[in-house]
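G., the chain you wanted modeled:
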Amino acid sequence: MSTLSSDISDRLAGGLIVSCQAYPGEPMRDPRTMAQIARAAVIGGAVAVRLQGIEDIRAAAGLDVPIVGLWKDGDADVFITPTLDHARAVADAGADVVAIDGTRRPRPDGLTLAATVAGLRDTHPRALIMADCGSLDDAIASEEAGVDFLGTTLSGYSGEREKTVGPDIELIQQIAKRCTLPVIAEGRIHSPAHAASARQAGAHAVCVGTAITHPSTITGWFVSALADVSGELA
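Predicted structure as tokens:
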């Protein structure tokens, strides 16, 4: 692990990364809004933020915590920073860590995961790389490719593992036991208890998005709970 990677890894250790994203067409889908949410998350204690889109990353420049950047693009299976050009653009925008699809699936530009990592290292040697994995085999391949962090982001979405109700604790445990790189638990972490269980399972840090930064979904949880009670009382 490089000195830079070790430094950021130390800053993330045991902490919360907040993913600040909104879907296209939503009222909050605006770079300035996402940057404001990111700053609010930092005030709350986030050790890093995760931002989607070049303009969002640029808008959050100047934060006192690392920015994990990505670019969702296209409608293919691989759409999280899907190509080397996307990865380089994310790094150019100011991301400290570039999150890329860490699965073994074919990429739109035809490059392998290893070639994508090598290509980014060639032009942006200071950019760290987080592999968004969907399985243990993905994590092993990503570690061999030379990334810096292993995320469980795509568990349940790449076709290799069932989609769990909460975080994929089993996968976190598998990766933490088999690999040497820091594991970032991400995906369906909907409560503080979920976050704690992910950390206990071996996660180096925990990334939470929807449960903190997506008011439409959070509102829906409360509405559903009240509807269930109303049904019982009827």
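Strands lie at 16-20, 48-52, 67-70, 97-101, 128-132, 149-151, 183-186, 205-208.

Shout if anything looks off.
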